[in-house]
């Protein structure tokens, strides 16, 4: 059974309308009545007064100081009511006063629809900020396909550029009723998380899982099971989550981790209770993979550990 929980940052419920992305007439018509999601220079989104959801404005309500160009907008999609949603980057100096919310806070507090829309906008606008020039000729790039591509305007016939999504695997490894978690030296004290790393060219996801666990902990695996995935726009990854079984529990740490250990449900329950151990952030697939593993274990210690997993913990960056 795959991860049953819909993870934060995914599940917008919007129809992305790929077939409309090059229909300029349709895009222009929709722009006039669109619901706008507004990102500031720091990648934060403008929110309602209570910060519980994004602020949606229409083009007509914006002032002269934040005049927007429809060609720079990103078509997020059409909702079930037929409303069309665009994300836009506010110009520097815009005079809109509204609370700003970062994406980690949004992932923790907003609905799936809202946090997923933010994740899409953050990933695409972040990519467009970093890819300013054509990688083939160095020419100027400008948005195409309703914001989902960048097109070189040099006239040299260069390839259209599409947003990057970097694949990373993340895995909770088990052996004889215990799970393997590790920590990096830069993380807050006591935080342990599933092992993770980027997929390399010419490598299957299962091979990447085996290689990463081997590199980071010196453990070889006898079985790898896919559980689910989560967009992770820090800055533009997708996390592919696995459970795996170790062939042998002997550990040999590599350079990336400060520590890695096998934890029984009892040790996790005691560590969470004493606040010596902290689970990864509840917004992350790492948290949900661990939670799912605990829910599959039998006995009181496993249910204790599950009940004690922190509802809110410090975030763990993987960028
Ligand atoms: Zn070019």
Largest sheet: 6 strands, mixed
Total DSSP helices: 7
Helicity, in percent?
10-25%
SSE arrangement, N to C: HEEEEEEHHEEEEEHEEEHHH
- Provide the low-confidence segments as ranges: 312-319
CATH architecture designation of the largest domain: Alpha-Beta Complex
Bound molecules: zinc ion
**CATH topology annotation of the largest domain:** Nucleoside Triphosphate Pyrophosphohydrolase
In the CATH hierarchy, what is the superfamily of the largest domain? Nucleoside Triphosphate Pyrophosphohydrolase
The 3D shape can be described as: globular
- Cα-to-Cα separation, first versus last residue: 29 Å
Briefly, what CATH class of the largest domain?
Alpha Beta
Structural class: alpha+beta
What is the alpha-carbon Rg in Å?
A: 22 Å
């Amino acid at each position: 059974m795959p991860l049953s929980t819909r993870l934060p940052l995914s599940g917008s419920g919007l129809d992305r309308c790929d077939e409309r992305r090059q229909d300029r007439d349709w895009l222009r018509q929709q722009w006039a009545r669109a619901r706008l999601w507004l990102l500031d220079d720091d990648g934060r989104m403008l929110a309602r007064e209570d910060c519980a959801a994004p602020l949606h404005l229409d083009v007509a309500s914006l002032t002269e100081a934040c005049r927007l160009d429809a060609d720079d907008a990103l078509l997020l999609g059409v909702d079930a009511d037929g409303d069309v949603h665009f994300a836009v980057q506010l110009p520097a100096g815009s005079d809109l006063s509204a609370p700003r919310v970062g994406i980690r806070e949004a992932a923790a507090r907003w609905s799936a629809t809202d946090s997923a829309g933010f994740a899409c906008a953050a990933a695409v606008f972040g990519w467009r900020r970093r890819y300013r020039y054509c990688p083939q000729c160095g020419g100027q790039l400008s948005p195409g396909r309703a914001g989902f591509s960048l097109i070189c305007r040099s006239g040299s016939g260069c390839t259209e550029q599409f947003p990057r999504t970097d694949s990373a695997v993340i895995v909770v490894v088990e052996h004889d009723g215990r799970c393997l978690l590790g920590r990096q030296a830069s993380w807050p004290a006591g935080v342990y998380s599933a092992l993770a790393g980027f997929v390399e060219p010419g490598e299957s996801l299962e091979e990447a899982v085996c290689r990463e666990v081997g590199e980071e902990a010196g453990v070889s695996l006898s079985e790898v099971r896919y559980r689910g995935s989560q967009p992770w726009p820090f800055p533009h990854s997708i996390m592919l989550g696995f459970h795996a079984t170790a062939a042998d529990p002997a550990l040999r740490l590599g350079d990336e981790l400060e520590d890695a250990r096998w934890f029984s449900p009892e040790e996790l329950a005691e560590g969470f209770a004493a606040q010596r151990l902290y689970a990864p952030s509840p917004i992350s697939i790492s948290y949900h993979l661990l939670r799912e593993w605990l829910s599959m274990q039998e006995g009181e210690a496993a249910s204790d550990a599950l009940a004690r997993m922190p509802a809110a913990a410090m975030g763990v960056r993987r960028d």
